Amino acid sequence: MDAYKLIVKIFVKDPPQLPADAFVPVFHSWIQNQLVADHLLIDVADYQLVHQGPGTVLVALEGNFSTDRADGRLGLQYNRKQPLAGSFADKLTAVLITTLEGCVRLEQEATLNGIRFGGDELVVRINDRLAAPNTKATFESIRGDLETLLAELYAGAPVELHHEPHAEKLLEVRIKSSQAVSTATLLERAKSLAALSAGN
Asked: Is residue 170, in this structure, part of any structural domain at all?
């Protein structure tokens, strides 16, 4: 699998009451201080008027962050736009790390009323219908990499993968773990896995 246009979304747990534009100054501060490693942060766009839309978008050359509200569920989504080195598993781990770093950074933001992300549920999409058509065969081709990664992230706890083939939609895998784990713990485990892979 050569696809690199990967998307990861992590959901907010018990969303706090926040102004509609709460993330705008936060993302602007990320730009001012260039807080995302290996990213050139460029601009912020606000789409709060779009029902169940992308919310507030932080645009970077390498990929976009957004406070996505699809299906009525707030979460931080990262959409990779530029190529990444390594295997599909390496690419997915890198995108997951970037997303988790964003979640942890938002959790530490005093203006967001103690926002917390649930580490037990993830959505992974591949934004490339040519390289990764949304078929059972494509899902099966990446399933092994997903299961290996998730076994490390959740320390062997049971994990459910849900995929529905659909010719007109991006390939999407919904992931649910029985283990409640913080985003900080997931980030630590993902970084350890990336370091191990880089050393091999």
From this structure: yes
* Centroid of chain to Cα 103: 9
pTM of the model: 0.95
CA distance 24 to 45: 8
DSSP 188: H
Which single residue is written with the structure tokens 């980030």?
A: 187
Q: Does any domain span residue 1?
A: no
- Distance between CA atoms of residues 76 and 106, nearest Å: 9
State which residues form the domain around 175. Answer: 6-199
**Could you give the angle at which helices 88-107 and 136-153 cross, rounded to 10 degrees?**
50
Provide the total of helices (H) and of strands (E) in the chain, helices listed first. Answer: 4, 8
pLDDT of res. 196: 87
At 53 the three-state DSSP class reads: coil
Using DSSP's 3-state secondary structure scheme, residue 85 falls into coil
Q: What confidence score (pLDDT) does residue 20 get? A: 85
Tell me the C-alpha distance between 30 and 192, whole Å.
25
Residues 6+ apart with CB under 8 A from 184: 104, 107
Residue 138 lies in a domain: yes
Count of structural domains within the chain: 1
User: Which region, left, alpha or beta, applies to residue 71 given φ > 0 means left and ψ of -120 to 50 means alpha?
Assistant: left
pLDDT value at residue 95: 98
Quick one: DSSP state of residue 108?
A: T
Residue segments in the chain with a per-residue pLDDT below the cut of 70: 200
